[in-house]
Amino acid sequence: MIPTRPMADFQTTYGPWAVVTGASSGIGRAFAEALATRGLNVVLTARREAALATLAEALRQTHGVEARVVPADLGTEAGVAAVEGGSADLDVGLLVASAGFGTSGAFLESDLGDEIAMLDVNVRAVARLTHGVGRRLVARGRGGIVLLGSLVGFQGTPFAAHYAATKAYVQTLGEALHVELAPRGVDVVVSAPGPVDTGFAEVADMQMGAALTPDAVVGPTLAALGRRQTVRPGLLTKVLTAGLSPLPRWARVRVMGRVMGGMTEHQRA
């Protein structure tokens, strides 16, 4: 159990503004709501402007915070630039890079355009925003970065090979930055949940069974910020981790292949 940081300390360290990507739904929306509860103003970014506007108004009315909407497709250079420009005049203390999507199935049978689009959102946009916002946080001497990894990012995962590879990138980037930036006052944590009940499975064409709620990811992740390098939220994630951890890497790859093979069996039927 990770102790909860007092709200005043959280605001001082990570406020007054937070940038949340993928904020229109799922984990990103849950992060935005949790940060507003803690008194942080939020820059909300995703592709769906109407959904962002509705969320922004709800956060203003419910929590009395400021909320700025920056519609952007992070799969494009222009989209990333829009997020950077849309928050340039604000005192940003926290970046939550929760935007992302997945693909599944046999890699060589996938649409290469979809795979490259996923690479742009899950990797390229994360690198650019982490680099840009990270420099701003170092300049102000305090702040935090939350990166969204996945349980599949700790080993190769057949039938989600490229998605797992993008999350391996996020995991290793976050682990290194946790060490690099700590002496400069910036906290970095990677959140690596198992299956989460969002629109992810539908987009990735996967059939998932038990799954975490977005709130079950957000609470432990924010509690771990400044305390841990990696957090694996939820009992389900911890059970899966406990089963995989004793195995050598090659065996974990095989086990995850069987798990993911079951989730994508309908594609081969």
From TrEMBL:
<dbReference type="InterPro" id="IPR020904">
    <property type="entry name" value="Sc_DH/Rdtase_CS"/>
</dbReference>
<dbReference type="InterPro" id="IPR002347">
    <property type="entry name" value="SDR_fam"/>
</dbReference>
<dbReference type="InterPro" id="IPR051019">
    <property type="entry name" value="VLCFA-Steroid_DH"/>
</dbReference>
<dbReference type="Pfam" id="PF00106">
    <property type="entry name" value="adh_short"/>
</dbReference>
<dbReference type="GO" id="GO:0016491">
    <property type="term" value="F:oxidoreductase activity"/>
</dbReference>
<keyword id="KW-0560">Oxidoreductase</keyword>
<dbReference type="InterPro" id="IPR036291">
    <property type="entry name" value="NAD(P)-bd_dom_sf"/>
</dbReference>
<protein>
    <submittedName>
        <fullName>Short-chain dehydrogenase</fullName>
    </submittedName>
</protein>
<comment type="similarity">
    <text>Belongs to the short-chain dehydrogenases/reductases (SDR) family.</text>
</comment>
